[in-house]
Amino acid sequence: MPLATSIRLVLFGPPGVGKGTQAAGIRARAGVPHISTGEMLREAMKNGSPLGQAVRAVVERGELVPDALIGDLVEERLSRPDAGSGFLLDGYPRTLAQADRLERYLAGKGLRLDGVVNLSVPEPEIIDRLTGRRVCPSCGALYHVRYSRPKVEGVCDRCGASLRARSDDTREAIGERLRIYHEQTAPLVARYQRDGLLVTVDGRGQPHEVLDRIVAAFPALRR
Predict the structure, then answer these.
(1) Global pTM exceeds 0.85
(2) Which residue among 8, 94, 101, 134 is the active-site one?
(3) Is 146 designated active site?
(4) Which domain CATH number covers 20?
(5) Which residues form the domain of 50?
(6) Which of the residues in the chain have pLDDT under 50?
(7) Per annotation, catalytic residue among 56, 61, 149, 166
(8) Does 42 qualify as catalytic in the annotation?
């Protein structure tokens, strides 16, 4: 287990650019929690909680969950002790209003972001990545029908459960998610660029190659 590095980062980019994969690499280096709003929401839906019931229809349409609900979830998570020395946010903020709320929350604690990693991948590759993605509903392992196939077709290598495509990985839902991203989230690029926080990283290639590009941009991760 690595010693915690005092660093507060946001992983940014449209769905399918590899934020979850890169988050695992950064977490292994920095020892700070990876806070994924997508995972938080999927867990709520899996457990059938009131939150999960409220967001299921929204997620399956590929739409964004309301800002107030996501903000409450994120702030509750950031208040836990393990996020005291740093964190890695994945999937938040996605709108200017969410960015404002995050900035106010951190400022109230005398903190600020250290950087925003903007992963960039061409849209045709994003669509290919997402439509071919398969997930294990039992242990959460990820596969791809071409790039990361299980040993037995349709069966998880780890636990033997049947693999599934996520309900929001249809072409229709992906198109809607990308439309919403360009409409609501892309303006964050200009905001964080203006604030001197944005680092755009080419998300193509092997995961370790992408991670090397991220590490090169943040000295605190070079260990």
Answers:
(1) no
(2) 94
(3) no
(4) 3.40.50.300
(5) 8-125+196-221
(6) 1-3
(7) 166
(8) no
To the query of whether residue 19 is one of the catalytic residues in this protein, the response is: yes
What whole-number distance in Å separates Cα of residue 74 and Cα of residue 85?
16
Tell me, what DSSP letter sits at residue 8? E
Residue 52 falls inside a structural domain: yes
**133 catalytic per annotation:** yes
What pLDDT is attached to residue 120? 93
At 88 the three-state DSSP class reads strand
Within-domain flag for 99: yes
Residue 133 placed within a domain: no
Total number of domains in the chain:
1
- A 10 A CB-CB count for 37 gives 19
* Spatial CB neighbours of 11, under 8 Å, sequence gap ≥ 6: 19, 22, 23, 26, 88, 89, 90, 91, 117, 119
Residue 206, domain member (yes or no): yes
Establish whether 61 is a catalytic residue. Answer: no
